[in-house]
Amino acid sequence: MAAVFPVILIAAMVIALIDIIMRDDSQVRHLPKFGWILLVVLLPLIGTLLWFIIGREYGAASANEGIGTLIATRSQPAQRPPVQQVSSTEQQLADLDREIEYYQRRAELERLKREAEGGSAS
After folding, report:
1. Among 11, 29, 55, 81, which one is most buried in terms of CB atoms within 10 A?
2. Any long-range contacts for 42-45 (C-beta under 8 Å, 24+ apart)?
3. 3-state DSSP helix/strand/coil percent for the chain, to nearest 5?
4. What pLDDT, on a 0 to 100 scale, did the predictor assign at position 81?
5. Which backbone phi and psi does 76 adopt, to 5 degrees?
6. Phi-psi region of 81 (alpha: psi -120 to 50; beta: other; left: phi over 0)
7. End-to-end Cα, the chain, rounded Å
8. Would you say 60 and 13 are in contact if contact means Cβ atoms under 8 Å apart?
9. Who's near 116: CB < 8 A, 6+ residues apart?
10. What is the four-CA torsion angle of 107, 113, 119, 122, rounded to 10 degrees?
11. What does 2-49 look like in DSSP terms, one character per residue?
12. What is the pLDDT of residue 89?
């Protein structure tokens, strides 16, 4: 039974530290974030209580930040970005070579058509 209080204190301290780190600077009152982190680490019981009582900004906007965001993002499955086919330099050069060959053959075919039309007209 004596080990319950230290476990609760450590859990509260970890939650307070995560909440301090995740909050925007505009939602931290009275001290900078680094000051609150030092206070919670050096004086766990007093620092944690002070953080939750006077240090953090409560309100409608705070529901989207802090520890709630961390829990919400962990519970949602990660979305994969669309797969893009990455081509190497060698593949790009081979594609360019094929394109150049295509246009050379097309130009040759058009030249042969003009010669055939010119030869049949005479």
Report:
1. 55
2. 44/9, 44/10, 44/12, 44/13, 45/9
3. 75, 0, 25
4. 67
5. -90, 140
6. beta
7. 112
8. no
9. none
10. -110
11. TTHHHHHHHHHHHHHHHHHHHS-GGGB-SS-HHHHHHHHHHSHHHHHH
12. 87
Three-state DSSP at 114 gives helix
Distance CA 44, CA 38 (A): 9
Residue 62 has what pLDDT?
46
* Interval 34-77: pLDDT, tens: 999 999 999 989 999 998 898 888 764 444 555 555 555 555 66
In the structure encoding, which two tokens stand for residue 57, read together? 């900004």
SS3 56: strand
Q: Report the percent of the chain where pLDDT is more than 90.
A: 34
Cβ-contact 53, 90 below 8 angstroms? no
Let me know how long the chain is: 122
Average the pLDDT over 18-41 and give the result: 88
